[in-house]
Amino acid sequence: MTRFRSGFTRWIEQRLLRDDPDDLIEAIGFLARTEGLSPDVAEHVATMTGTMTSDVVAAYQADNTEWASTQATFDHPDLTALDDHLDTVAYCRHQD
After folding, report:
1. Rounded Cα distance, 16 and 50, in Å
2. What does 5-55 look like in DSSP terms, one character per residue?
3. Superkingdom of this entry's organism (predicted)?
4. Crossing angle for the helix pair 7-15 and 22-35, nearest 10 degrees?
5. How far apart are CA 40 and CA 42, in angstroms?
6. Are 8 and 59 in contact (CB under 8 A)?
7. In angstroms, rounded to a whole number, what is the distance separating the alpha carbons of residues 72 and 46?
8. Which of 3, 20, 38, 94 is the most exposed place for a label (fewest CB within 10 A)?
9. Which has the closest alpha carbon to 60: 3, 2, 15, 1?
10. Helix (H, G, I), strand (E, B) or coil at 81
11. pLDDT tens column, 51-63
């Protein structure tokens, strides 16, 4: 199974003060991406990393901005059409 990794989870991992379970970091990153970063979780991450809550929020927001930009690129109509075309080519080659 592939771990959920984001810029935010890497930011947390780089600043950890102790060995926190990878599953906890992964869960925090995934929930932050899908549900948002609550003040309580931001405070917990700040404690885990020895940083200020504002640093955590800034890292979270920067990661979300980068992710949204990447998603917008992938959702561009030309890339969507190219992806569909490549899927068709791959399917046809697989049938041969």
Report:
1. 7
2. --HHHHHHHHH-SS---HHHHHHHHHHHHHH---HHHHHHHHHHHT--HHH
3. Bacteria
4. 140
5. 5
6. yes
7. 30
8. 94
9. 15
10. helix
11. 999 999 999 999 9
55, two tokens:
């640093």
- 95 pLDDT exceeds 80? no
pLDDT digits (tens, 9 = 90+) for 24-59: 888 899 889 989 999 999 999 999 999 999 999 999
Task: Report how far Cα 3 is from the mean position of its chain's Cα atoms.
Answer: 10
Name the amino acid, one letter, at 86. L
Q: Residues 32, 41: contact at Cβ < 8 Å?
A: yes
Tokens representing residue 48 in the block: 């885990």
